[in-house]
Automatic annotation (TrEMBL):
Pfam families: NPCBM_assoc, Peptidase_M11. Residues 493-567 form the Alpha-galactosidase NEW3 domain. It comes from the Bacteria. The keyword Signal applies. Residues 203-329 form the Peptidase M11 gametolysin domain. SUPFAM superfamilies: Metalloproteases ('zincins'), catalytic domain (SSF55486). Gene3D superfamilies: Immunoglobulins (2.60.40.10). Keywords: Signal. This is Peptidase M11. Residues 1-41 form the signal peptide.
Length: 686
């Protein structure tokens, strides 16, 4: 969020723990620390000063039942997550001793804790075990309400002491439902989109010098309702307003139906997509900034992921772990995630490409202290679509990105820096954090190695080695396999057919993908073309295209050979052929002469005659495209051949002669659609 914070950002927390190492120095410590919450007003409620202190140990525990509300305050350099339990219409803030459980707004819960005061404004909660909920996560492990149309209402409001309108309503609508909407549609591979309305500007009876998000929301919805808007029709509500006294650029509920997002003067794609990401249930895309292997220290950067909009740098695609939580990746109807189950080479395609090819690799990375499975997620980012901004950022599109996350923990996505300590600025240090071709990431604790073998702009090859299985195998090139299939077994002369050309790359898995040039060999006069004249194929994979072939009308009956070849600059070529039977067509059409018109002209002693013949079938219909032979005799003689035009006519010229009688006869008519010629009434004389 690009603005100067009104409150200073806290120093990051140094974490220590079990290390991971790289082939170059790096140690990763994966642990978690709970940061204290600052005091901000929400709704009509502000925490009392003693809320930052623990409740007295002798205060008895109580049980409170209500509905959870989780709010994320996004400041420029840090974020704060606050938990409330709405009980009997009032908010009770929850302070957890340790790391809070993964809760979503709208979850019904019973919380056991010690109150801070008699009026129950806050509860001190010993642990996540003190919260009993009904899960809002689907059995598939995905977050709820993340697919299909998202009915969204954008409310533009300003304040009684600041009636400025930083953006027109039309521009705001275009930003949210155009640019941001396109971001969600592309991210989800067309599975999720925004639809709705933008209303306002409304001036609400709230001062810009105060920070009360609940009052902003209630007054905005009140004004919209007065203007005839049925607010309850919208499951996602966004409040946009000029900068006010709140220090955050954005505030959002984590989940919720309806969900709510407050946009505080920072009207950008990144800020709005970030807050809507929280509304969908996502937490922050963090990063680990680690010292070298001698210190075993890492710092958690809340916004540290440079290639995920749930960081705060740019509106790039959500990472693979987040997309799986949303149901946008790794499901039956979405692009796939490869699961690394053994030591071998795996191929992933460019992450933002709009197809169903595998977009990420998931590699087991041991279990955490609670027995939950951890994974590495590997992605190949390219500067296309909403990942276009990554093209000018370090090496993020030159290699693969590696993150670590824990199954069932939505707040566990960590970007891992493959080239640590390259910058003294921790956030900037992440921007060259990709694993580049030839580099190896080593997880010694789990006896695992990840090596990027190559990346060619479309596909990346990642070698996974479990249990010290040794170096990746070397490349062994082999002759590819080419085949022609499909197509008609027999055609009439002048007709065509199409073949499927399939090419299998038989190189070993250690080789890079190869590009083959396709050529064809056809009988003389035939035409043919490939739908794609080049095929790029990964080792072990097969690619296909179409070869279309057309015979000539005068092809004699017989069996002919159609061939195709695949070649590459490094050698290892292949060819394939098939047979095509051609039959000269037999027609029952009888060609005859309809009329012959002779016209003569003279120039001095020279005379020339033009004969125009119309050729028809036995039913008197013009025959077009027929080959006609005509001959002059008498005062001059000679024969020639011409083709009938669109109305069945053909013209012949006699050349010059000295005068005298002349006769013109049509002597032959042929063509693929002509069976025979009736020569009666085929001559005229002048």
């Amino acid at each position: 969020m690009n603005f100067t914070p009104r409150t200073p950002a806290p120093r990051p927390t140094a974490l220590t723990g079990a290390s991971l190492s790289l082939a170059f120095p790096l140690a990763l410590a994966l642990a978690f620390a709970a940061a204290p919450s600052s005091v901000q007003a929400h709704g009509n409620h502000a925490l009392p000063p003693q809320a930052s202190e623990r409740a007295r140990p002798d205060t008895p525990e109580i049980r409170v039942e209500g509905e959870i509300e989780v709010l994320v305050e996004d400041y420029a350099e840090h974020a704060e997550t606050r938990y409330f339990l709405r009980a009997n219409g009032r908010p009770v803030e929850l302070h957890f001793r340790g790391r809070p459980p993964q809760l979503l707004t709208g979850t019904r819960a019973t919380v056991r804790g010690r109150p801070f005061s008699a009026d129950l404004e806050a509860l001190y909660v010993e642990s996540g075990d003190s919260v009993s909920t009904q899960s809002t996560v689907a059995s598939s492990g995905t977050l709820p309400n993340t697919l299909g149309e998202q009915r969204t209402l954008v409310m533009l409001v300003n304040f009684q002491d600041d009636t400025s309108q930083p953006m027109s309503r039309a521009s705001a609508h275009s930003l949210v439902f155009g640019t941001v909407g396109d971001y969600f549609r592309e991210n989800s591979a067309g599975q999720t989109w925004l639809a709705g309305d933008t209303v306002g500007w409304y001036t609400i009876p709230v001062s810009s010098t105060s920070c009360n998000s609940g009052q902003i929301a209630s007054e905005a919805e009140k004004r919209a309702t007065q203007a005839g808007v049925k607010v309850s029709d919208y499951s996602r509500r966004v409040y946009m307003f000029p900068r006010n006294a709140c220090g955050w650029a954005g505030l959002a509920t984590v989940g919720g139906n309806p969900s709510q997002a407050w946009i505080n003067g920072v009207f950008t794609v990144q800020n709005i997509s970030h807050e809507l990401g929280h509304n969908f249930g996502l937490r922050h895309a963090k990063a680990l900034s680690c010292d070298d292997s001698t210190s075993l220290n890492c710092v958690v950067l809340t916004y540290g992921d440079p290639a995920d909009s749930m960081g705060n740098r740019r509106a790039a695609h959500f990472g693979a772990f987040n997309k799986m939580l949303l149901g946008w990746l790794g499901t039956e109807h979405s692009p796939q995630v490869l699961a690394a189950t053994r030591s071998e080479r795996y191929y992933i395609d460019a992450y933002s490409a709009g197809d169903n090819a595998p977009k990420a690799l998931r590699v087991p990375a041991g279990k955490d202290a609670g027995g939950r499975q951890q994974y590495y997620f590997v992605e190949y980012r390219r500067p296309a679509g909403y990942d276009g901004s990554l093209g000018s950022v370090g090496n993020l599109t030159s290699g693969v990105i590696v993150r670590r996350a824990t199954e069932g923990d939505s707040d566990s996505s960590f970007f891992l820096d493959m080239t640590p300590k390259s910058s003294s600025m921790r956030t900037w240090d992440m921007e060259d954090g990709a694993l580049v071709p030839g580099a190896t990431f080593v997880d010694a604790a789990n006896d695992l190695r990840l090596t990027l073998a190559w990346a060619d702009g479309t596909t990346a090859a990642v070698d996974v080695a479990f249990g010290g299985s040794g170096p990746a195998p070397s490349c062994s090139a082999a002759t590819p396999t080419l085949s022609l299939s499909g197509g008609a077994a027999e055609v009439l002369a002048g007709q065509g057919t199409s073949y499927t050309v399939s090419l299998k790359n038989n190189d070993s898995s250690a080789c890079a993908s190869a590009t083959f040039d396709l050529t064809r060999a056809l009988p003389s006069g035939w035409s043919g073309s490939f739908a794609a004249s080049k095929l790029s194929v990964s080792p072990g994979a097969t690619a296909s295209t179409t070869l279309s072939v057309t015979t000539t009308e005068n092809t004699a009956s017989g069996t002919y050979t159609v061939s195709a070849s695949a070649t590459r600059s490094s050698g290892g070529n292949a060819s394939a052929s098939t047979s095509l039977k051609v039959t000269a067509p037999v027609s029952d059409t009888v060609a005859r002469v309809g009329t012959i018109t002779l016209s003569s002209s003279s120039r001095g002693k020279n005379v020339s005659t033009t004969a125009i013949a119309s050729i028809v079938d036995q039913h008197g219909r013009p025959l077009t495209g027929a080959s006609v032979t005509g001959c002059f005799s008498g005062a001059t003689s000679g024969c020639s051949t011409a083709t009938t035009d669109g109305v069945g006519q053909v013209s012949f010229g006699s050349g010059n002669y000295r005068g005298g009688g002349i006769t013109f006869c049509v002597t032959a008519v042929s063509g693929s659609h002509v069976g025979s010629f009736d020569a009666s009434n085929s001559c005229r004389s002048n």
